[in-house]
TrEMBL record:
It comes from Isoptericola chiayiensis. This is MBL fold metallo-hydrolase. It comes from the Bacteria. Keywords: Hydrolase, Metal-binding, Zinc. Signal peptide: none annotated.
């Protein structure tokens, strides 16, 4: 399978298009779209058209809105469902409320993130009121294979950044789509609503720490890296 990365103009979220090798009788190949941040829908749709692809599903590594803003648009254009872990489904209907927009009770850190996201959207010509939730949401739970036409990814529940954070693993290709669990040189923050430091530490030890060191990591933001490089140098990972 091939992995194409489209970087969103808002918060530079890495949107990944995972494409199957097999071409169907009509000449098209199946694909899934992972983490469609704000401003990615047109670029993804052009890629789908140019490469003769068929979108079987839109996936989210977690429910934060910088990873799901264009999900409704892509799902509608390509008649596909949004799939994400069941524990993050509640975020899709109220993504700004779940990170504290307009709610000082959730603390200064959540307010700062909400303000930064609102400003980034404004710079792109959008407002939180324009967000639309996808019409079809198909949750999954736990670990296991997600079969989306000819594309199969292994979901690994990796809570900590959010309750439903998930790694998507392409084992044959040696690629991990890590969302906001693991970055090059860092890990996802645990000071936002629904985050859990103890759960994150367990994820880093028991999930990330057991991945194949040779695998490539495509994080939710920033440059690609490898599992081995992060195990050797990332200060947040257990030695």
């Amino acid at each position: 399978m091939d992995v194409h990365v489209v970087v969103a103009p808002v918060f530079a979220t890495n949107c990944c298009v995972v494409v199957a090798d097999r071409r169907a009788d009509d000449g098209r190949r199946d694909c899934v779209v992972v983490d469609p941040g704000a401003g990615t829908a047109d670029a993804v749709s052009r890629l789908v058209e140019d490469e003769s692809l068929r979108v079987r599903a839109v996936l989210a590594t977690h429910g934060h809105v910088d990873h799901t803003w264009d999900a409704a648009e892509l799902c509608a254009r390509h008649d596909a469902p949004l799939r994400l872990h069941a524990r993050d489904v509640y975020r899709v209907s109220d993504p700004f409320g779940t990170i504290g927009l307009g709610d000082g009770r959730l603390g200064a850190q959540a307010a700062a993130v909400s303000d930064a996201l609102t400003q980034a959207l404004a710079d792109f010509g959008r407002t939180p009121r324009e967000y639309t939730a996808p019409a079809r949401v198909e949750p999954f739970d736990g670990d296991g294979d997600l079969v989306c036409g000819d594309v199969t990814l292994r979901a690994r529940h990796a809570p900590g950044h959010t309750e439903g954070s998930t790694l998507y693993v392409l084992e044959a290709e040696g690629v991990v789509l890590s969302g906001d669990v693991l970055f090059a040189g860092s890990v996802g923050r645990t000071d936002l609503p629904g985050a859990d430091l103890e759960a994150m530490l367990a994820t880093l030890r028991d999930v990330v720490g057991r991945l194949d060191p040779a695998w490539q990591v495509v994080p939710g933001h920033g440059p690609t890296t490898t599992v081995g490089r992060e195990l050797a140098s990332n200060p947040f990972l257990p030695r």
